[in-house]
Amino acid sequence: MSAAVRQERTPVRIGSSPARALRLGGVRVGYEVRQYFRQRDTLFFTFLFPTLIFLIFAAAFSGSGDVGAAPDGSGAISVAAYYLPGLVAAGVVLSGIQNLGIDIAQERSDGTLKRLGGSPLPIASYFIGKAGTVLVTAVAQLVLLLTVAGLGFGVALPADGEHWLRFAWVFLLSIAMAVVIGVAVSSLPRTGRSASAVIVPVLLVLQFVSGVYFRFTDLPAWLQDAASLFPLKWVAQGMRSAFLPERFAAAEQTGTWDLATTALVLAGWTLGGLVLARLTFRWVRRDA
After folding, report:
1. Which residues neighbour 97 within 8 Å (Cβ) at sequence distance 6 or greater?
2. How far, CA to CA in Å, does 20 sit from each of 24, 29, 65, 287?
3. Residue 49 and residue 213: Cα distance in Å, rounded?
4. Does 212 fall in a domain?
5. Which residue pairs, CB below 8 angstroms and at least 24 apart, start in 209-215?
6. How far apart are CA 16 and CA 5, in angstroms?
7. In angstroms, what CA-CA distances link 190 with 153, 182, 209, 211?
8. What percent of the chain is helix, strand and coil (3-state, nearest 5)?
């Protein structure tokens, strides 16, 4: 390969202060969010998907009775309340890993990344734009889901600061994990056209085995152990710890919410994803 070709593939940057990188990153967030909501397939399969599945499950299984009743019949919660935390977790993963992985793969395939790589835009600004977009869309998705759950099905949200604080750190740590994993998996598809076929099925399977749609402990023990290696199981468990009554911890794999392990696993995936993204991210297609 000639030196000229190697130089073309290396992003060229002019000097940039952190303040400028942040300012341009904020501009990129606005641009990326507008692009996000203009894509109908992304809007349906990523943004609206958790809410639509929540509506289907809450309506379809509401006739089966409440969940988690004590022997005397007290203490049960509605089916809608039970499914809510799992779909909040799925929304974070869809907004981060799925949408970001597919979006970056498509930008690499159509040459957008190559053009950005040779522009004066600071590299940090590009990734700030992506991370900010995931945060904004995940928060908007969360607000929509909680609104539908509360107004449509009467789901009561946590009433104390401890559970909201628990939700906040699980949510933010999950967002950070989803962003770096999304950047890393964007290098797996060879083309933008194949990105959905590569990324979506894996995440769909993980949703089914991570306690999003079924009670996690109803799965075979070997499948529980396998799912525990991946972050979605821990995001869903962390969300259940924030939204469900404390007594529901007894239904978890270890009989507790195991928040320390949740934090460690999500932090480990975040750090590992950051290293993997740094090693695998490229501005041009493999065959370019």
Report:
1. 178, 181, 182, 185, 199, 203
2. 6, 14, 56, 33
3. 13
4. yes
5. 209/233, 210/89, 210/235, 210/236, 211/86, 211/236, 211/237, 211/240, 212/86, 212/87, 212/89, 212/90, 212/236, 213/53, 213/57, 213/83, 213/86, 215/251
6. 25
7. 43, 15, 27, 31
8. 75, 0, 25
Asked whether residue 271 is domain-assigned, the answer is yes
pLDDT confidence of residue 4: 40
User: Is 286 part of any domain?
Assistant: no
Strand, helix or coil for residue 252: coil
CA distance 194 to 189: 6
Residue 288 lies in a domain: no
Structure tokens at 14: 């002019």
pLDDT tier, 73 (very low <50, low <70, confident <90, very high otherwise) = low
Confidence band (pLDDT; 50, 70, 90) for 7? very low
Longest CA pairwise span in the chain (Å): 78
At 279 the pLDDT is: 94
Answer whether 182's CB lies under 8 Å from 104's CB: yes
Rg (CA), the chain: 20
> What is the CA 154 to chain-centroid distance, rounded?
26
Encoding tokens for residue 169? 């750190």
Domain count, the chain: 1
Residue range 114-147, pLDDT digits in tens: 898 888 889 999 999 999 999 999 999 999 999 9
Nearest Cα residue to 211 out of 237, 243, 173: 237
* Cα–Cα nearest to 207, from 36, 39, 46, 40: 46
DSSP-assigned beta bridge partners for residue 67: 77
Q: Which domain holds residue 193?
A: 17-60+77-280
- How far, in Å, are 10, 160, 177, 224, 272 from residue 205 at the CA level? 37, 34, 19, 13, 22
Residue type, 89: A
pTM of the full structure: 0.91
236 close to 212: Cβ distance less than 8 angstroms: yes
